[in-house]
Amino acid sequence: MFKCFILVVSLWGIEMECPKCGSKWGVTNTASGGNYARDNILNHGRKLVGWFCDDFVIRIRKCTNSECGHRQYTIEIIIDDAKEIFDILCKEGFSALKIERKR
Ligand SMILES: [Zn+2]
Fold first, then answer.
1. What's the CA-to-centroid distance between 96 and ligand 1, angstroms?
2. How many angstroms separate the most distant Cα atoms in the chain?
3. Cα of 60 to ligand 1 centre, how many Å?
């Protein structure tokens, strides 16, 4: 059994909490799928969902608590795309990642 690590965040104005300490987890950088000038950020999303779509947003988040400072990437994708990705992976497993299915 494989695990899927896709974090879907799409609620405007709703702040995320740091998974380490619970403080505010602010956004320090954002890049969307079609922006090839931001490859260093976008490649994290391409590795995860690039076989399926280019329509995603990658955010770098950092904890505002200076004693914590936890930093991590999150991805935002259309929820119907997330459902389809999960369905494909559940049916086909990791071999699905070798087939490009961009629409
Ligand atoms: Zn924290």
1. 35
2. 44
3. 14
Question: pTM value?
Answer: 0.76
Asked if the structure places residue 69 within a domain, the reply is: yes
Task: Give the domain extent around 79.
Answer: 25-97
Residue 70 located in a structural domain: yes
Quote the ligand 1 centre to 74 CA distance (angstroms): 15
Predicted confidence (pLDDT) per residue in 34-54, tens digit: 777 788 899 999 989 999 998
What is the CA(103)–ligand 1 centre distance, in A? Answer: 37
Residue 3 is predicted with a pLDDT of 42
Looking at the domain assignment, is residue 68 inside a domain? yes
Q: By C-alpha distance, which of 96, 75, 78 is closest to 87?
A: 96
